Amino acid sequence: MKRFFVLLAALALLICSGSLWANGNAQGASSGKIKATLITMDSIDEHWLKVRAGAQAKADELGNVELTFNAPPGKVDAAIQLQMVEDAITKKSDIILLAPLNRDALSPGVEKAKKAGVKVIIIDSAVSTTDYDAFFSTDNGAAARTAADTLANLIDGTGKVAIVNAQAGAGTTMTRENDFKDQIAKKYPDITIVGTQYSDGDKTKALNIALDFLTANPDLAGFYACNEGSTVGVGNAIAQRDLAGQVKEVGFDWSADTKSLVDQGILQASMVQNPYEMGYQGLQAGVDAYNGKTISPKDNDTGVTVATKENQNTIK
User: Fold this and answer.
1) Residue 176 zone, left/alpha/beta (φ > 0; ψ -120 to 50; rest)
2) CATH value at residue 247
3) Residues 43 and 91 placed together within one structural domain of the fold
4) Which of 29, 155, 206, 284 could bridge 230 with an S-S bond, Cβ 3.0-4.6 Å?
5) Is 85 a member of any domain?
6) Are residues 119 and 170 in the same domain?
7) Distance, CA of 57 to CA of 113 (rounded, Å)
């Protein structure tokens, strides 16, 4: 009888232990850390490296987050990025931080992640669905309108300008393009936009696009570039044609390359975002959501600064 009760107790302990293990594994507790996956548009632009640095700093600060970083090789295939989202779901990520290449193409992945119980934080660029936990980005519409006013002032409200954008279809870049166009049409009737071309954020491609614009429009007054790669490529084209100061440029983002263009008088102004805060605040929001908190407000503006030669030393 005594042996029977010993065996019964051992069996009960085994069942209890098995149940605890199963529950802990389901909650990602087997490793003792919250699993977070950051997926950006690429791993080349300094903008995305700053997002990653911010997220990693928050992970290090919290101490209980295991952060994985992933990005497609280039900003041209949203299907690859969608597969990365699905892989993160399969690998039982607790949190996904996503900068979507295409607002429509990535929405099914976001919705699938939410259905799987993953906390989803959107950063930098919007998706078509509202089924996410929080969104951290620049107010790209306001920044684009500021860019339009800045360029208009530089060319005295008259002349031809060209737009070099990054990705056609990305929520961020299309907002930057469309709000710029709307502001020009609304306030500056003597400015003509001669065209828009897409560089996929590639500096060499942007350079060639800008050279084509300059060849087709020898009286071009200015350029508006919608991301770091486009800004640098356009600036290099202006330098190559020896048109610094003659053809004005207003761009986006801040890096060693854009700073150099400002120093040389090629780039007159750049709309500088705060990508570090997108990553830093975004991961904190993901952890808060994982712990059962509702993120309020759901959509958050991380701010923008107009960088010029006069204030460039204050820009990080």
Assistant:
1) alpha
2) 3.40.50.2300
3) yes
4) 206
5) yes
6) no
7) 25
Distances (CA, A) of 198 to 131, 151, 203, 207, 209: 29, 19, 11, 11, 8
Report which of 274, 308, 203, 313 is spatially closest to residue 50, judged by C-alpha positions: 274
The answer to whether 103 touches 126, Cβ cutoff 8 Å, is yes
Q: Are residues 266 and 145 in the same domain?
A: yes
Domain that holds residue 104: 32-138+275-301
Question: What's the CA gap between 314 and 120, in Å, rounded?
Answer: 33
Q: Phi and psi for 250 in degrees, rounded to 5?
A: -120, 130
For the chain, the domain total comes to 2
Single-letter amino acid, residue 105? A
Q: In this structure, are 202 and 235 located in the same domain?
A: yes
Per-residue model confidence as pLDDT tens for the chain (316 residues) = 444 433 344 434 333 333 322 233 333 444 689 999 999 998 888 889 999 999 999 999 999 999 999 999 877 789 999 999 999 999 999 999 999 999 999 999 999 999 999 999 999 988 999 999 999 998 999 999 999 999 999 999 999 999 999 988 777 889 999 999 999 999 999 999 999 999 999 999 999 999 999 999 999 999 999 999 999 999 999 999 999 999 999 999 999 999 999 999 999 999 998 999 999 999 999 999 999 999 999 999 998 999 999 998 888 6
- Geometric angle at alpha carbon 72, from 67 and 75, rounded to 5°: 125
Q: Among 146, 145, 156, 216, which Cα is nearest to 181's?
A: 145
Q: How many CB atoms lie within 10 A of CB 30?
A: 11
pLDDT tens profile 90-105: 999 999 999 999 999 9
